[in-house]
Amino acid sequence: MIIDLDPKKVPLTEFMKALGYDSPVAADGVLRTYNAPYDDRHESTMVINIETNLWRDTKSGASGGIYDLAYEMTGSCNRSELLLYIATQLSATRKINVRHEPDPPMRQLPPLPKTTPDKPKRRFKFF
């Protein structure tokens, strides 16, 4: 599967809109505070810096970029699964090209040359 998306270039505020958080709870300069989508109580502890495109949770201390946010939400460490999750969520707000390409055919190895065992050489017989 090939996904035409560079998640590092996606603004976290756009990702939050795709998750259903249309506007921040509070805004202060370059900081935007959102209700934490990964928290069961959805408290407003998630702060996004729109200049650096990084987030931080003021309660738990979790922080990072978009992959780290997707990890907090899914619990998956597999990078391709996180990319698929991010692309699926963003497909609601932007056009993302996802292609399924067939696996390349197995490469055939050339056959091994047939070898015949060497004839035994003459041996001396001791009486």
Description:
The protein is α+β, with helices and mostly antiparallel strands. It has a single domain (2-99), classed as Alpha-Beta Complex (DNA Primase, Chain A). It is 22% helix and 18% strand. It contains 3 helices and 7 strands. It has helices at residues 12-18, 66-74, 79-90; strands spanning 2-4, 26-28, 31-34, 46-49, 54-57, 63-64, 97-99. A hairpin with a 5-residue loop joins strand 5 and strand 6 (63-64). Helix 2 crosses helix 3 (79-90). The longest helix is centred in the middle third of the chain and has 12 residues, at 79-90. The chain is elongated, with a radius of gyration of 28 Å.
Task: Draw up the topology in text.
Blueprint: E1 2-4, H1 12-18, E2 26-28, E3 31-34, E4 46-49, E5 54-57, E6 63-64, H2 66-74, H3 79-90, E7 97-99
Antiparallel strand pairs: 1-7, 2-3, 3-4, 4-5, 5-6
Helix pairs in contact: 2-3
